[in-house]
Amino acid sequence: MAKQFTTSKKISARLKSTLPIPKTIEYKYIDFDIFTDLLSFYVRTINLLVSQDLDTQTRGLGLSGGTGKIATILLVAANPGIRPSVLAHFIRKDRSAMGKLLEVMERKGLIEQRVSRTERRARELFLTAKGKALVQPTRDVARRQDDEFFSPLSGDEREQLLELLRKLYENYLDMVPRAEE
After folding, report:
1. By residue range, what is the domain housing residue 80?
2. Which of 8, 115, 140, 172 is deepest in the core (most CB within 10 A)?
3. Cα dist. 104→100, 108, 130 in Å?
4. Within a domain: residue 42?
5. Which parts of the chain sit beneath pLDDT 50?
């Protein structure tokens, strides 16, 4: 339990350094109105916090700044030849945002788009050698960050939260990512 508390404090300090606590008002007595009971408020806020922390953790890999780079590296690695539209569906990017993300990653030499051999109008995504070299370090950083960020939760709580989030994901996106058995 002491390790969880220490890790949680370390992450808390790291996050607070990115967005300092306001000094101009007494913030401890803010009325959160209906947000106190809205799951969406906590999901959005935790999403921002986990994203900020992951961004900090992946800076050394060149994958920070914006969303989608980590998912793109890992999903293209696991699914060579995946089409941009399929990838966009699962990481929730619209066509324009997906195009910009792929353009950035191509400029960085991480991915390449090829014309499909079976459907000439379709494009398929593949990692370059530089992109492939980032796969394992990206997995390592993402796993470590996930373990650290969610360290205030017990193993059972993490498992329960993961199942609940997977259930929602599946309800809205057709399928759930599962670890290989």
Report:
1. 2-17+33-147
2. 8
3. 6, 6, 14
4. yes
5. 1, 181
